[in-house]
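In this section we walk through a basic example: taking a raw amino acid sequence and producing a predicted 3D structure, encoded as discrete structure tokens. The instruction is simple. Fold the sequence below.
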Amino acid sequence: MTGINLQRENENLKDVNRELDAIIENSYDGIYITDKNGITLKTNSAIERITGIPKDYYIGKHVDDLIKRGILKNSVTNRVVKEKRTVSLVQHNYEGNETLLTGTPVFNENGEVKKVVTNIRDLSELNTLQNKLRRVNQLNTQYKKELERLKNKPDQVNGIVTKSEPMKRIYDTANRIADIDATVLILGETGVGKDVLAQYIFTNSNRSKKGDLIKVNCGAIPSDLLESELFGYERGAFTGASKDGKPGMFELAHKGILFLDEIGELPLALQVKLLRVLQEGEIQRIGSTKPKKIDVRIIAATNQDLKKMVKNGDFREDLYYRLNVIPLEIPSLRKRQEDIFPLIQRFLDEVNDKYQLNKQIDYDLKDFFLSYEWPGNIRELANLIERLAVTTRNETITIENLPDEYLTSKTIKTNHIVPLKEAVEIAEKRVIALAAEKYSNTYDLAEALNTSQPTIVRKLKKYKIQLR
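The resulting token sequence is shown next.
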């Protein structure tokens, strides 16, 4: 090759390099190029916008040193070199916005990784669009529900959250027995959603097309009035009775379902009459001499230990076995942590829509919610979310906004007073350690805790937790 040809080839190579530099420099995404050893060779100006650090600072730095200094949280470069393939991960930048890092290997003629080109994309705009789309979809869902209500068709799901396996099994069973006219006994602590499950069974049963769901709280009605409320009365049955008489709840639920909440509060005398309804399929109004046939399915619910009440003579054994045909026990919220984050989002969306707010909950507060015992279960969670949303001045609700009763050492299971941030870390470590005993990889662990896989990797390293 002549000198002129060499000079021309050299000029062409310089033109190509200039064009390549211009392309890299003018890319909206951050470009980060390292050699196979992790030494930074080249970056562009976009990386300054995304990370807040001048691009020249990176040149010549090793990615491991950048991680140690807190500039990077994870190294996509090391994974690309190790796995010899394109690797993507998500991490947060200096402003807390999510960034997507995609590392691509450049191979030499021997098939070895020579360089790694990492593309860094700011996901904040995408997340904003996703949030707007989610709100639009929520409004669309609300409109559909309202149309269904206007058509007198009950909602099929009614906002039920069943992310955890126990709740999936319960609602799967409820769906399968919806059209079976057997008595159902729903057990569970106060506030776990027993009435929601009863509504779900009714909604998905054929009885919803023929009759109504009538709800009676056996503990909220005085015992001397409960009999007339349940069974009704004839004209002149007692002083003050309506001259036309009155049908009871059983008659109102004819062809439908009668939901007897707090069945453990039912007086013994009425337990006998309820047993007769279950055995004979008929009721008798107060003051009447004639029984009346009814077609009613019974769903009962209680937060009490009926077996213990039977043993103590406070509940009839024969009635217990009549009610306990299909028992469904709803676990407490603290035993189904997978449902906590979805429930938080659902209640927050409802409150924001109700009061025209735009409140958000920060990560530390979500972690606190995950570790809290929730003695009041879902009802307590819903009430707390609404309370925080309407009383917090800022758009973002933090752990400092919690009421005083939630900020005790007992709540986070420590036996001494510690700084608030440390208390949150104690709870977070405990939850992650529990989940790490069940799951064998970080992807399943992240899904169970409703967070990202890079976050789980970082937390496992921070707390020195090993997967099983």
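Looking at the output, two observations stand out. The radius of gyration is 32 Å. The CA atoms of residues 11 and 137 lie 56 Å apart. In the next section we compare this with other chains.
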